[in-house]
Amino acid sequence: MTLGHFIKQIRTQKGLSQPQLAEQMCVEQSYLSKLENDKSVPSNEVFRKLLTALNLSLDECMQTLSTQGKREELSQIPDIEYWYKQHQQSKQKQYTHLAILAIVLVSLGVGLFWSGYKQLFFSEKRFEYESQGVLQAGEPVELYHKWHAYLIPYSKSGDREFFAQVEVAMAKRLDKKTVFFSDYRGSAYTESVTDGRRHYRFQGPKFVERAENAWLQFVGLLCFSAGVMLTLVGKRLVKP
């Protein structure tokens, strides 16, 4: 769309004749006719009179002309050339902000994914400790593992019945309990309980998957993907 076509279109929409619009602009009708037929380019002063007569702001005018008009022709008018420069600067700022956001999203995405993958915040390594049962006061901590050795001084050689009775008694007392910790507490440790104490022995490290790490990786991928998409389509989104 040329500037002349635009003037004629808006004039018609507002129900103005050429003489009426020319009068409001304080120009000759013949000059307005030349403008509408693209045989002349208005001066900046005449262009401002045109906008005033049509009751249009520069932005309202450029909403149509910037997408359908020819910039080379329109830029001959200083106000329009200035509008294009301001508009371009505004779009450039938008793109800069978008680019910064994309960089932040990509960086955040990589950081979150790596944190989840390497378990930096939520370790999946657990240290397993096991107790065989409750120990009474004075009983050795290794009672459940070495009770045979502790009974030798008190038993007669070959007294199978005595050993069988003790074995049954120990089996009844057996009450295994397993606990896991995120930190290593040594090869063994003892803690007090209501009816005595428990001796825990280190069984080895275990690895237990944690949903937190999976979520960190998932959110990281989303942020990374969003950042990449903004980078790829950013210029199109803010295209002048």
From TrEMBL:
Instruction: Check the UniProt entry and state the signal peptide residues, or none.
Output: none
Q: Where is the HTH cro/C1-type domain?
A: 7-61
Query: What PROSITE patterns is this protein classified in?
Result: HTH_CROC1
InterPro entries linked to this entry: Cro/C1-type_HTH (IPR001387), Lambda_DNA-bd_dom_sf (IPR010982), TPR-like_helical_dom_sf (IPR011990), TransReg_Diox_bact_type (IPR050807)
Does the entry feature the keyword Transmembrane helix, yes or no?
A: yes
Q: Record's Gene3D superfamilies?
A: Tetratricopeptide repeat domain
- Indicate the transmembrane segments per the record: 95-117, 214-234
- Which organism does this record belong to? Pseudoalteromonas piscicida
Keyword Transmembrane listed? The answer is: yes
Give GO cellular component annotations, separated by semicolons: cytosol
What is this protein called in UniProt? Answer: Transcriptional regulator
Q: Which GO terms describe its molecular function?
A: DNA binding; DNA-binding transcription factor activity
CDD domains hit by this protein: HTH_XRE
Which lineage ranks, top first, belong to the organism behind this chain?
Answer: Bacteria, Pseudomonadati, Pseudomonadota, Gammaproteobacteria, Alteromonadales
Q: Name the keywords, alphabetized.
A: DNA-binding, Membrane, Transmembrane, Transmembrane helix
